[in-house]
Amino acid sequence: MRLTLRTLLACLDRVLPAAEQRELEAKVAATGAARQLVERLQRVVAEAAIPAPRLDGRGLAADANSVAEYLDNCLEPDRLEAFERMCIESDAHLAEVAACHDMLATLAREPAAAESLDAAGRRRLLAAMGHLSAQATATADRREAVENARAMRAAIEPAAAGVSRIPRRSSHTAWLAALGAVALLVALGGLLVEAIGRSRRRPGGQEPAPEVVGDAGAVERQPAAPAAPPAETEQAAEQAGVAPPAVAVAPPPADGPAATPAPAGPPPSPSAAPGAEVEAAAPATVAPGMPVEQPRVPQGDALAIAAPLPAAPVPPPAARAPDAASAVSPAPAAAGETSLGFAGGEGLLLRRMVDDGRPAWAAVPPGATLALREDVVAPFGCRPEVSVRGVTIRLLPGTRAVITAAADGSPRLELAFGKAILRASHPDARCGIAAAGLAGTITAGLTGPVAVSVELDRPAGSDPAAIPARVRAGVIAVDAGLGWRQEGGVPDARPLAGIAAEGMIDARTAITWESEAPAAGRVVRLDPLPAWVAGAQPGDRLERNACAALVARVAAVPDLEQALAEMAADRRAENRVLAASTLALLGDFDAAVELLCTEAPGRRLEQGQWTRLEADTVPLALARGANAAAKLRQAFEDRAPHGKAEALFALARGPGDDELAAGGAEALVAGLEDGDLVVRRYAYKCLCDIVQPSRADQLHYRPDALPERRREGANWWRGQLQKGLIRRHRAA
């Protein structure tokens, strides 16, 4: 094994196999430079005064992901040598890399280190940190006081020695200094006169615009005159329940009459319908509530990592006809009513349209009006909302739904799969629900949140083309009771048995339905409530940044499929994962399967990213029906390693009990030592799904570990196989 900085860190943190550990220790003992580097590593990690590297410094520190990519062994080869050289030359970078590697190694050896502290532990930690903080502050104050005293002494001592020590200037020196000052004043006066003359000779008598000099990298903007919409526009907007549209003053046409002095204040402009596009001239007037362009950091967005990125506005899609293939007869609308509500919330909302006679998807910009029937999807990482006739429907990530209006004009939510949270501000609000076999109307209780879900589940090993997925649906009263009036269920349009035709449901109670018993429903007490019922839980920083990048990419590229395809090739892994999972929601699995199978440097996913992408895309594709499963299979045939497509699709389906008994378990253990990473990952996933090992047992094997470590983990699983422990555990 070569002696590099990364292998030296692994040797110091003792995460290598025993043979490689002994080999590297011998090389370190025989190499003087390596011993010096070891001593330096121990010193810089223990020294608390070393600051963190600056993000605007030289080298690779401008990229905040450099250390993580280096430790994960996915840094591009052309940057690897430069990064290690920078770490060896800089104590700050060397300390950061060594400390991060030590923390990761500690977590790998001792998973309990990542567990939360109890109350007593938190108090001890805060007390210890308070003592250290006070000690450091006192030391810094004492050092500053000493430096100030030395500076004052240095300034006072020359004055105390007397002015006699200062040499006198001769009279000739004084006259020369005076003449130099007069000459400088005459030169400055001449330059001033010349500048005034040039400004008077400027053609047209135009004054030059004063140059505004601000802070480095700041964006200077001229304040725009406030333009208020006319009274009739404000009144119409208030009646419609939307914010008044922005009004901009357009310049007269070039070939028009000569301009005349305008009266004080903005001229009136005709009112525009909500959502209409107006081409504004500079300076544009920004309406309240609209996103304002933020100044950019000179060194790039890496310096703005601590600040939330503003959501880029999504341009409204071109007008398209509703999808006739999947449309149903719209609900009766009031006279002159053409919209159902408007969109909002966090991230993207996608709608199904018809473009040139074929189904297509387009982004719904925030604030856009909704048609009388909308087939929509909430991508992963996004939590959009739709406000429909007084009811707010928040769609959770990975949800597809159809939103229409019932015969009485109230909103109706038809959930295909996923989860949604409903709420209304008016106590008399109503909403129709169609969630698989649950069909009815919420007649009361929408002032408290109501959760609706449809979950698809497929038995492991079953053929998606022959065996339909299991479907479970539920309507949950979260913290207040709700009124429920059921309509005809499926499949025979008769009311479900086990549920009253109309009545009240208590708080923390759910009405549930399962496809295995389609003619009946149940009322179930939930204690505790499912975690997702709490509403829109914020994602981690990487997920939020990826969602903001997706919004910005869709805003820059009008064609949604092109924008997602470009983002699926992004250099950041979280952006590629989000784009691929969104395409999979829309029925395109090529990008997802390519990411699952690739081992190219800089493109290979970490184990956690791979697990998340696979869980978001493959099980749902297999459960959505024969068409989606056939598209997924074709993607494996097109993107999988040569000769592995059939085996990978079988691993994606998971082995059934009959397959396990017929040698499937032995095949899974053998797959842990396959030459392709995607096969090893799928074999390990299937084994974990079957056995449900503890967290400590999961650490025995990593699909992306070194070969020696993988062999040790495969031998552990082989021992489990010989003991007969690779089998599914049935609930009692």
Could you describe the 3D structure shown?
The protein is globular and about 110 Å long. A hairpin with a 5-residue loop joins strand 8 (399-405) and strand 9. It has a 17-stranded mixed sheet that branches. By secondary structure, it is α+β, with helices and mostly antiparallel strands. Residues 159-170 and 201-336 have low confidence and may be disordered. The protein has helices at 5-12, 18-30, 32-46, 66-71, 77-89, 91-109, 119-160, 171-200, 231-240, 541-556, 560-567, 573-585, 590-597, 607-623, 626-639, 645-653, 657-671, 677-691, 695-698, 707-722, and strands spanning 341-346, 350-355, 358-363, 369-370, 374-378, 383-388, 391-395, 399-405, 411-424, 431-435, 438-444, 450-457, 470-477, 482-486, 502-505, 509-514, 522-525. Among the domains are: 5-111, no CATH class; 341-534, no CATH class; 568-722, no CATH class.
User: Which regions are unreliable across 5 or more consecutive residues at pLDDT < 50?
Assistant: 159-170, 201-336
Number of H- or I-type helical stretches: 20
- DSSP summary, beta strand count: 17
Helix content: 25-40%
Percentage of β-strand residues? 5-15%
The biggest beta sheet, please?
17 strands, mixed
- Radius of gyration over C-alpha positions, nearest whole angstrom: 34 Å
State the separation between the terminal residues, measured CA to CA.
Answer: 51 Å
Shape, please? globular
Summarize model confidence as the mean pLDDT: 75
Which structural class is indicated by helix and strand composition?
alpha+beta
